[in-house]
Amino acid sequence: MALLLCLVCLTAALAQGCLHCHSNFSKKFSFYRQHVNFKSWWVGDIPVSGALLTDWSDDTMKELHLAIPAEITREKLDQVATAVYQMMDQLYQGKMYFPGYFPNELRNIFREQVHLIQNAIIESRIDCQHHCGIFQYETISCNNCTDSHVACFGYNCESSQQWESAVQGLLSYINNWHKQDTSMRATPAFLVSPALRCLEPPHLANLTLEDAAECLKQH
């Protein structure tokens, strides 16, 4: 059974976007804003396009609608950024456009960017199902662009020995988690899944290997 629980979280993350964490974002979007005046024959397109570019990061997070923290790997952030910059650069290579065309194209690129970020974040979480037990990978938090990591529990165990090792690893992870400062630690999404009441934080302190294995087998 390959089941991914880390996609389930109680609340959506509050963030400002993801693309702004990329090293070239400021340079690229500064150029885009400075040259927006030369992209449309109609003066009304200029303030509309400028607002789209200025609010790009904030609007991105509003449209993601993710029920998991907005944390993306550096590799996937590079891939998203490269795709977005290519679309934007191609749009800016054209001469002045007829009224309405330029802001509409900006909106299309924005929506495609949101789709790419959604897929990038979710795909990394789904990759967890290819692992057996606790798995962690390095990410960037879209909230403040700091290094972070995501922990999840994969069910793709091929033998009873692997399964027992996975459950033992889970117990070890939980024990270490309990020792962390409560004001600093974050609860992994797989520990607050509505489907796993037996793994809710109030029950974790006294969790045994047998209890954890039985709980996980039920799901």
Automatic annotation (TrEMBL):
One Pfam family this sequence matches: IZUMO
Entry keywords, A to Z: Signal
Domain of life: Eukaryota
InterPro entries in UniProt: IZUMO (IPR029389), Izumo_fusion (IPR052868)
GO cellular component term of the entry, any: nucleus
Family: Belongs to the Izumo family.
Protein name per UniProt: IZUMO family member 4
